[in-house]
Amino acid sequence: MVSLHNVTKVFRNGNKVLDGVNLQVHQGDFIFLTGVSGAGKSTLLRLLYGAEQATSGDVIVNDVNLNRIRNRPLALLRRKLGVVFQDYRLLAHRTVSENVAFVLRAQGIAPSEIRRRLGPTLKMVGLTGKADRFPHELSGGEQQRLSLARAIVNTPILLIADEPTGNLDWENSLLVLQILQRLNSFGVTIIMTSHDPNLVERTDHRVVHLQEGQLYDLR
């Protein structure tokens, strides 16, 4: 599903955040990526959906080498991925339903298919009763679950979650984790960054730790 081979990332200012990183992720895995703030966790995730390009090495997702594709092939790959951002990135003037539907409309999905997918997706994240609300009418936990709904409505093969519980209290963090675990039980591969050891310890999922540009298996 995901293969990183000797991946190095150096920014223009000379800052090397990844130094010869290797990682193998198989279909159906659930992996926690941990590390201190600034360790390069978000950068690593951005490599996986093509928002950044490795300075050297190979980043392979679903048999596609992201260092060798551009434009339309990359856009087609991204349709198979779901990305959950810590800052939500919601459409402020669209309702919950419209926020989720927007993702599918942008892919040219037929209105009938959009309607078919909306109900189950909102039910999965516990927002069925909030379909006509706007983002500012939601709590922080609900906004994050809406962000999650946007990421999963296209039935991704890989879900990339960047600190999805970073701004949430413990109760909402557990709720998001439970949703992710349920998705994983359906076969969705999940890579999730977290700085909360208590959350990580509640599961038996694999843990990889990023430190000084190197990746270490902790569990």
Question: Can you lay out the helices and strands and say which pair or pack?
Answer:
Elements: E1 2-10, E2 16-25, E3 30-34, H1 41-48, E4 56-61, E5 64-65, H2 71-78, E6 81-84, H3 96-105, H4 111-124, H5 140-152, E7 158-161, H6 170-185, E8 189-193, H7 197-201, E9 206-211, E10 214-217
Parallel strand pairs: 3-8, 3-9, 6-7, 7-8
Antiparallel strand pairs: 1-2, 1-4, 4-5, 9-10
Helix pairs in contact: 3-4, 3-5
Structure characteristics:
219 residues, alpha/beta, six-stranded mixed beta sheet, four-stranded antiparallel beta sheet, 10 strands, globular
Please explain how this structure is put together.
With 219 residues, the chain is an alpha/beta fold. The protein is 34% helix and 25% strand. The protein has seven helices and ten strands. The chain has helices at residues 41-48, 71-78, 96-105, 111-124, 140-152, 170-185, 197-201; strands spanning 2-10, 16-25, 30-34, 56-61, 64-65, 81-84, 158-161, 189-193, 206-211, 214-217. β9 (206-211) and β10 form a beta hairpin.
